[in-house]
Amino acid sequence: MYKYITILGAAGQIAQRLTATLLTYTDMHITLYGRQLSTRIHPEILEHERITVIEGSFQNPKKLEEAVKNTEVVFLSAMETGSDMAAIVKALARQNIRRIIGLSMAGLSGEFPTALEKNFTFDSLPISYVQGERQARNVLRESNLNYTILRLPWLYNDMENTNYEFIPEGAPFNDAQVTREAVVKAVYDILHVEDETPFSRASIGVGEPGTHYDKPSFFYRIQRLSFLS
Question: How many angstroms separate the CA atoms of 82 and 135, rounded?
């Protein structure tokens, strides 16, 4: 069980949910790192006795190293550019921190069904975003860090739905969606496993079971509401 964790990109939706979960269900000490956190995170969280807040960007090496110093595990809420990932890898190496769990997008390795990958997912995202995600993943995989990359499909919010399944690398990724709450549960579960071997230097999909759609279900709901309005 880890006692110290640093959350990079701490203002993100999943990062904030994970912070609240760890404060409620563990005694972990949490360092939050990101930009303008004092205006983006609830004061009750910022003032908690087990929270340390450091504001800065991934391109600020001094602040970034301060944030990861003496931590045991790092959680990265988004893997969006190769340059940011390179800076993070360098900071962790300088502080001799090896364990990192990062969130990335699914579909970069052709694991989605054709309809979901070609006709919706990539058509709905800027090519620069997809390229940035791919570059960031490559940088992390080429490092010597003990990483777990969690590949995510389309995200939505549902407080009552924490259902998820892990999808091994190389297996078809048929799940079109997953809730942010389920992703938090998956990260929490990984942090608490007795044997980390299956998650060491691994790229694992996280999807909602039984959502084998060509498009996320909430997209159909949006279309229907638009039609009815």
Answer: 5
DSSP 3-state of 10 = coil
Contacts 24+ apart (CB under 8 A), 26-30: 26/1, 27/3, 28/2, 28/3, 28/4, 29/3, 29/4, 29/5, 30/5, 30/6
Q: Decide the pairing of beta strands 165-167 and 202-207.
A: antiparallel
Q: Which amino acid is at 10?
A: A
Q: Is the overall model pTM greater than 0.85, yes or no?
A: yes
CA distance 108 to 112: 9
Q: What DSSP line would sit under 140-198, residue for residue?
A: HHTSSSEEEEEEE-EEE--TT----EEE-TTS-----EEEHHHHHHHHHHHHT-S--GG
182-225 pLDDT, tens digit each: 999 999 999 999 999 999 999 999 999 999 988 888 876 644 43
State both tokens at 204.
Answer: 């694992």
**pLDDT, tens digit, 9 for 90 and up, residues 70-127:** 999 999 999 999 999 999 999 999 999 999 999 999 988 889 888 787 766 777 788 8
Q: Which two tokens stand for residue 76?
A: 């990265």
